[in-house]
Amino acid sequence: MATGTNELPSLHPVPGIRLATVSAGIKKPGRKDVVLIEAAEGTTCAAVFTRNAFCAAPVTVAREHWQASGKKARYLLVNTGNANAGTGAQGLQSARTSCEQVAELAGVDPETVLPFSTGVIGEQLPVEKITAVIPEALAGLTDEGWADAASGIMTTDTRPKGCSVRFTADGREYTLTGISKGAGMIRPNMATMLGYVATDMAVEAEVLQQALADAVAISFNRVTVDGDTSTNDACVLLATGAAGNDPVSDLGSSEGIALRDALQEVCVTLAQALVRDGEGASKFVTVQVDGGRDEQECLDVAFTIAHSPLVKTALFASDPNWGRLLAAIGRAGLQDLDVDKVGVFLNDVLIAENGCRAASYTEEQGVAAMAPEDIVIRVELNRGNSGASVWTTDFSYDYVKINAEYRT
Amino acid sequence: MATGTNELPSLHPVPGIRLATVSAGIKKPGRKDVVLIEAAEGTTCAAVFTRNAFCAAPVTVAREHWQASGKKARYLLVNTGNANAGTGAQGLQSARTSCEQVAELAGVDPETVLPFSTGVIGEQLPVEKITAVIPEALAGLTDEGWADAASGIMTTDTRPKGCSVRFTADGREYTLTGISKGAGMIRPNMATMLGYVATDMAVEAEVLQQALADAVAISFNRVTVDGDTSTNDACVLLATGAAGNDPVSDLGSSEGIALRDALQEVCVTLAQALVRDGEGASKFVTVQVDGGRDEQECLDVAFTIAHSPLVKTALFASDPNWGRLLAAIGRAGLQDLDVDKVGVFLNDVLIAENGCRAASYTEEQGVAAMAPEDIVIRVELNRGNSGASVWTTDFSYDYVKINAEYRT
Fold this sequence. Notes:
The structure is a homodimer. By secondary structure, chain A is an alpha+beta fold. The first copy, chain A, folds into two domains: about 15-275, L-amino peptidase D-ALA esterase/amidase, CATH 3.60.70; about 285-390, ArgJ beta chain, C-terminal domain (Ubiquitin-like (UB roll)), CATH 3.10.20.340. The first copy, chain A, is about 35% helix and about 25% strand. The first copy, chain A, is built from eleven helices and 16 strands. Chain A has helices at about 55-70, 90-105, 125-140, 145-150, 205-215, 255-275, 295-305, 310-315, 320-330, 365-370, 395-405; strands at about 15-25, 30-40, 45-50, 75-80, 115-120, 160-170, 170-180, 195-200, 225, 235-240, 285-290, 345, 350-355, 355, 375-380, 385-390. In chain A, strand 1 and strand 2 form a beta hairpin. In chain A, helix 2 packs parallel to helix 3. Chain A is globular. The two termini of chain A are about 20 Å apart. At the A-B interface, helix 8, helix 9, strand 14 and helix 11 of A face helix 8, helix 9, strand 14 and helix 11 of B. Chains A, B: Its EC number is 2.3.1.35, 2.3.1.1.
C-alpha cells in the first residue's frame, strides 16, 4: 500500500551532473542496482549521515572521504541489494575498493568518490560485481539520467521518488533536482533512507552544509514510519557551480534565501514521498502541534503521537479516537502541562478540549474527518507561540506482514 | 493470544482485608464489574499513580483523598466498564459521589475511600448504577474474596492475575497477596494497569511508600507492550497491621528486607502477568542489558529494543534478526558507544559481536533460539558494571486487529 500519486514528476537536468544506472546483479539478475552520479570538477558537497552508532561500512568510508577531500565530491557510487552493514573490516575494504576502482578509471582522487549501499544487512558486499560494471557506468553517464537513478536506488520502495525546481536569484536562473529512496525511517534489512540533491548554483562548502542541515531538520528529520533509524541513512547535496555565479557565501543573501527556499521545497517533497510510500501505509498523516513554549516541546508531542502504536492502529481503522490522542499528549513529558487548555483537531474539526471530548463534537464529524487518505491531526497547546509539524503513516496489517515476513 | 499459564494461583487471605465483587451492569448486564476492598482500621496505604498529564477523574480524587487522610485507607472502590477519563467536572463529581456513598453506609470518613475506574474513555460514569450496589458489596465482604476480585477488575484481559506469598521475619509469619489487571501498559479505551497488594504486616506509612516505589520501579515500570502509558494507572499497597508486629520503621531492618523481597516477588509476578496477557502476545520476551555504565543507559537500550516495531515484528515471526537488534542498540542514544565491544545473545547463543554477526553463529542456532514462547534477548555493552531488564511482547496481526477494531 501507499498513499498519493505514483507518478514521478519531470526531473530537470542539473548542469554539471551526469548519472548512469546499470545492472550488476547484486541480488537479482537483471535488476538495475548500481547508480553512479558524476559531479563536475569544483563541485562542493554537503552531507548528513545516520546518527546510529552502528553505521554501515559505506557510511564510515563516505564520511572519511568527504572530510579528507575538503568536502568536494566527483562521484557518488550507490548500490542496492546489499547494505554492506554489519560486515566488519571486510565490509570497509569492499567500500574502499569500489571507490578506488571508480577513481582509477575516471582519473580522480579516491577521496572524491563517496560510496552508498542499501539492501540486506549482514551479508558481505559482492564488490567484484560492482567493480565489473563501473566501466559501463562511466560510459553511460548522461545529464538526463535522474529518473533512471531514482528507480535504480530503490529497494522495497513501491515507486521512485524525485522532485525538481527551477528558481531565480539576482536575475539568474538555477536548477535544483533531487531523488530519494526509503519506505520507512529504516528498513533494517532493506535498510535506509538515501537522498541525493544537486544544484548548478555555486555555493561555498560551509554555507552549503548549513543549508542542507537546515533543510534536513525540517524534512527528513520530521518524517517517521516506525521510529527506527537506519544504519545507512545519508543525504547529499551537490553544488556544481555550472551556473557561473560567484559562490554564495551567505545564507542570508538573496541568493542564499532562494537556495534555502528551493532546497526546503525539494527536501520536504522527497521526505513526504518516503512517508507516502511507507510500509503498509494507508494514510498520510500530518501531526501539527502549535502553541508550545518552544519548538522542541512541540516536536516531543508530535513525535509521541506519531510513534504511538495505539494512535497508528486507530488511524488504520479510521477511528477518531481522541482518547488515544489525549493519552499520547499527556505522556510526552511536557512540564506543567495544563490539560484543560489543550485543544485537539482532526482537520478542521475540534474533537477535544478541556481534557474531554469537545461539547460541539459529534462522532459523525470525526468519522468524516478520518475518511480521507490525507489527515491533519492538530494539537493546540495554548501555552506559547512555537509550532512544529511531522509526517507519519498508520500501522496496518501490511506493516506487520512486511516486517514479519521479510526474511522468511 | 497470551503466553504462559491461564491458571490463577491460590491467593491467601490477608488478615484485615475483606473483598466483595458484585454486578452493577455498567457496560454489560450481569458482568461482575464492581470490586470493593475493605481494610481494617489503622491500615496504612501506599500508592503510585500514572504520570500521564491527562489523568482520569478517579486518579485525581484518589490522590486527593489519600493525601487528605494521611495515607490511610479503609475502602478501595474499583469499577470496570468505564474509565471515567476525559469526563471533566462531571467525572470528578461522579468519583466523589461514589466515595461518599461508601463512606456514609460504612460509617467512615469519605477521604478514606479511594476510587478507581477502568474501561472506556470519554463516556460519563453511570455513578447511580455503582452507588446502587454498594449495600450489596458491603454485605458481601469476605476475606476469601481475592480470586473473585482478580476477575472483577478485568477489562479485556483474557485471564485474572494474582500472586500470593507467605514470608517470615523475626519469627513471625506474614502474608502478602496482590492482584492486577491490564493487557498492555495502556488500553486507552479499555484503559489501565491496576494493581492492589496487601499485607498484614504493620508498616509505617513512609516506609510502606518507599517499599512500593522500589518494587514498582523494577516491576510495573519495567514492562511494556506498546510504550503507551494509561491515564488511569494505579498501584496500591495496604498494610493492615493485623499480624500484631510493631510497625516497621526501617526498610533495612530484617522485617523491612523481608517485606521488600516478598513485595518484589509479588510485583514482578503481577507485572510479568500483564505482559504475558499482552494484546496479541505470542512471545514473552526478557530484554536484559548488562555491562552498562549505569542502570539508566541499560534501561535506555532495553526499552529502545522493547519498543522497536521492527524488533517486535521480527519476534512475532520468530526471526533471529540481529541486524534490527544492532540498529535499535545503535539509536538508543548512548554516548561514545563502542559498537565493536557490544555482544548480543538470544538465550545463550551469541548472535552478534564486533558490530557484525558472530563468527560462531549459524542461522540454525538463531531459529532454534527463537522457537520457544519465552525468549531472552541479552545485550552485553562491555563498558561498565550496571545491568537492567525489561519484559515485553511481540507485535502481531492480533495487536493491530485488537487496537484497530476495538471501537468498530
